[in-house]
Fold this sequence. Notes:
- The chain is an alpha/beta fold.
- The protein has a single domain (about 15-245), classed as 3-Layer(aba) Sandwich (Rossmann fold), CATH 3.40.50.720.
- The chain contains 7 helices and 11 strands.
- The relative contact order is 0.14.
Amino acid sequence: MTGRKPQGAWGAFMPMVTVGIVGASGGLGRALCAHLLARGDVVGAIGSSAARLDSLSSHLGDPESLRPFEADATDVSQLEEVVATLQGLDGPLYGWVNLAGSWAGGRPVASSDLAQLDAMLDSNLRTCYCGCRAVLPTLIANGRGKVVNVGARPAIVGGPSMAAYAAAKAAVVNLTASIAAEVVGAGVQVNAILPATIDTPANRGAMPLADTRGWVPAQSLADVIAFLLSPQSDAINGAAIPVYGPLPSGGAPGG
């Protein structure tokens, strides 16, 4: 791509950049895709369902700069193919966001099912690890780049009946810190965000009676991720950034 962005959120004039988003078709993914496309980025939208990727494209108005990819986020080889395609078509690839994940809970460890632990590790930790493994060689070779991973508030503030989820997200935080230490001096920064419950249609549907006043708006979270994908965040590496949302007066964060 040869276009240039106007001066603004990016500071000085800068060529358009390419960003891959794993888990792009969810509620947060839609908000983030819209934000990055609006500022002029090329977005590789990666998801496991072709139908949901088609819905995402239609929702965004079928933009030219959206590149949909159907891929299994737990398969490094499939993600490496996406990376190679983005680098070849629109490169150099600059940013990567690992949004894929899921939540399950409801039982204390004493009566839990180990299948739930396996599922939480696969959907939250393995997807993040595979995404990082797939993209880092290219970002390092390019000499610059940003990776943003998604932890969660329970990664640092545990709660009852969600131990498997909290453990998986805590592992994401430590994975992020370890990779950040590995890429020091390579021009690449790797950070994580720690949201509380995200205000998305899916979460509202799953929790219709919940008090949503303290939930994090998806657009607000997209703003934070977009900042971490910008040159203004060059001094931030290995951070785990709380994004707990607009808490009610006197309330405590939940997640």
